[in-house]
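Researcher: Last one for today. Full complex below.
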Amino acid sequence: MSPSPRAETTVGAGPAVEAWEALLRSQVALWRLLEADDVWEPITPREYDVLHTLGRCPDGRARIRDLHREVLLSQPSLSRLVERMAEAGLVAREPDPADGRGTVVVLTETGDRLRRRVGARHAESIRRTVGVALDEREQQALRLLCDKLRAGTRT
Amino acid sequence: MSPSPRAETTVGAGPAVEAWEALLRSQVALWRLLEADDVWEPITPREYDVLHTLGRCPDGRARIRDLHREVLLSQPSLSRLVERMAEAGLVAREPDPADGRGTVVVLTETGDRLRRRVGARHAESIRRTVGVALDEREQQALRLLCDKLRAGTRT
DNA sequence: CCAAGGTCCATGCGTTTGCATGGACACAGG
DNA sequence: CCTGTGTCCATGCAAACGCATGGACCTTGG
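Model: Here's the assembly. Have a good evening.
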């Protein structure tokens, strides 16, 4: 509303803020493209995220608590998402023998096949999209910086 | 479910996929910290996103269509979010004199004050979080890479 | 061994989201 | 001018979300 003094917080916010904002906006922009790409077919991106995360766990199994750390979703929402995926046969739920409170989510054969199929298409989609914007050296630099950022914030 | 051949799609997916995955995961991790930080007080992060985006527009006004490009939200959801924010007095909605279909969203005095107040706290939160993980040179490098990535994908 | 406190998951509930759609307007080509 | 096509925003509706909470189970200290 004021004619010009809007610049204060946006211009001189410092390199940390600018870095975060660039990170956020590039992630959002890229995500929209990847999400809109026709590679998900029988599942949603969020379901694939769960499958993908499970795929990186030993034996394709993980506690809900551990999935919750990776997937951007509240614990109740994740709980119900897993429930739906179990009904669809993508995962199975079994009690944790080592901890009576825990629920272990297991990738089924069907779920693993789907993970591979969608994963391959999705990866190709990523290569197309990221590949035109950054060369291989820049991709690696970006990866290093993001990994360092994530490691440094996990205090 | 297979004992070991799970590595295929995760290991050798290529630098582009690894870069995107690192970007995604660092963004999610950081976002959780920033979202959990007690700086939002009277509004939600998504509402702040709208205020912030409006703040960077000339005269603090923008079409819903333009907001939609920046904010990660479907058009109907954004439409209703703006509606709620208008009821709360943070923005005002008026028809676009230049385009009968359009709705212009205007930052009110109240909304702009709130934007500044939350923005300052949020920026401080970002500096704390990002600052401990990356030094200033790395922050700038990250910003450049992300900007280039976003520019390159906007084809 | 027991009590107190913490962790983990599931469920009730109100809110918000996305999809599909519709109405109003803009913008060409004939 | 006017008709067809495309754009922009709002709304009905079902699905999904987050918050608050509860019950079951671990864990620690006395």
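The domain at 14-149 of chain A is CATH 1.10.10.10 (Arc Repressor Mutant, subunit A). The two ends of chain A are 40 Å apart (CA to CA).
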